[in-house]
From TrEMBL:
Family per record: Belongs to the uracil-DNA glycosylase (UDG) superfamily. Type 4 (UDGa) family.
Database matches in Pfam families: UDG
Catalytic activity: Hydrolyzes single-stranded DNA or mismatched double-stranded DNA and polynucleotides, releasing free uracil
Keywords of the record: 4Fe-4S, DNA damage, DNA repair, Hydrolase, Iron, Iron-sulfur, Metal-binding
Residue span(s) of domain Uracil-DNA glycosylase-like: 42-190
Organism placement in taxonomy: Bacteria, Bacillati, Bacillota, Clostridia, Eubacteriales
GO biological process: DNA repair
Annotated InterPro entries: UDG_Type-4/5 (IPR051536), Ura-DNA_glyco_family4 (IPR005273), Uracil-DNA_glycosylase-like (IPR005122), Uracil-DNA_glycosylase-like_sf (IPR036895)
NCBIfam families, A to Z: UDG_fam4
Protein name: Type-4 uracil-DNA glycosylase
Amino acid sequence: MNRVPYSPDHDLSGVNSLEELKAMAVACTRCGLRSGCSGVVFGEGNPEARLMLIGEGPGADEDRMGRPFVGKAGQLLDKILEAAGLERFTHTYIANVVKCRPPGNRVPRPDEAARCLPWLYRQIELVSPGIIVLLGSTALQNLIDPAARITEMRGRWLVSKSGIKIMPTYHPAALLRDVSKKRPVWEDFQKVRDEYRKIMNS
Ligand code: SF4
């Protein structure tokens, strides 16, 4: 496994629960995305999950419902998890790099992601997962390396300094555009499932 320079840097160390963090995040105006969206989509799932999934940002459905991964891509993600024997609310916690919808679903700019990442970093620390799946290049580039390419990095385990195992794979929205990505994503999630079982049995 490759060690990665994942080094969370934030000013939220004093926030000691996801509820408290969410209450602060929903009032956030740290970047311009907040003025163009319906509200902050904080994230959801099992707060004690050993598996955390990180995507890019809310889309139109997520913005409307205030929940992550509820549109077509989210429904596909649910199916992939189910096929791997994982249930979203039981086994995972899901969040995004940015918590407000970028206009027109554009990729969040680096300055927007940089302002939002402290929320995610503290979420990761509070959930304390053993495995993180990075869904797509925005998650990969903002958490691991701005120059990393998802086509080269997907399917390969990385490990953070604190020992979190990290699997980059394609974003489910990419599968909706290109069905040839379904097989590699399924292979990646099989690895995630096997590692998850190992962690739960150790
Ligand atoms: S995207 Fe993140 S940093 Fe920007 S306003 Fe929303 S919660 Fe705050």
